[in-house]
Amino acid sequence: MEDIFGTALLDYQKGAYTEDLITFSSLGEEDVMPLPYLFRNFQQMPPLEQKALKGCEGRILDIGCGAGSHSLVLQERGLDVTAIDHSPGAIETCRIRGVRQTVLCDICSYEGQRFDTLLMLMNGIGIVGTLAQLGPFLDHLKTLLRPGGQLLLDSSDIIYMFDEGDKPQEWEHYYGEVTFTIQYKGMTGPSFPWLYVSYGVLEEIAKAHDFSCELVGDGEHYDYLARLSPRKY
């Protein structure tokens, strides 16, 4: 499968930046994902991301690491961080930028190592695709956590994007299930599902799968940061 996202990251890293990623969604929106933003430093990150990075501790797994910006911040602070992504281009970019520990793998297939902090930023939880997959995905992440470990993630409640007269309970699918397509330099990738989950729904599913769930902070655009930890019995 063509690694469009990774190709774009490598182009920027190697000085061949001429255009940005374009995203198309089932919400009927076309949007631009500026490549420079994916290479931001700590000061350029939004407050919720900064808060999440400050909350990382112990051995850390940066899930869906992209260009490795979060991993680099943690690494510079002397923390033990591993960056994981299923995109070969993203992992190569991380290595070029100096991320010392990287893994090329789909997180759903990853096993063996255990961590104190699992980090999923930029709505990283969206990779589960559908609400039905969120619970099983959390069960998998639980196997990657050491006792007392935590999962830090951010997401958004996109109900604001719909008309007030719409009734989510009558929709065929959860309103946060969105389909995306990415385009870059004439290349168009296959459509893929992405999940935006409200905090209330996340909390409900997390508790059903034996996680405690804490709202760490709210952002300015209907986004939030949450901390999940497996319950102790």
Automatic annotation (TrEMBL):
Transmembrane segments: none annotated. Keywords: Methyltransferase, S-adenosyl-L-methionine, Transferase. One of its GO terms (biological process) is methylation. The keyword S-adenosyl-L-methionine applies. Residues 61-152 form the Methyltransferase type domain. One of its GO terms (molecular function) is S-adenosylmethionine-dependent methyltransferase activity. InterPro entries: Methyltransf_11 (IPR013216), SAM-dependent_MTases_sf (IPR029063). This is Class I SAM-dependent methyltransferase. It comes from Pelagihabitans pacificus.
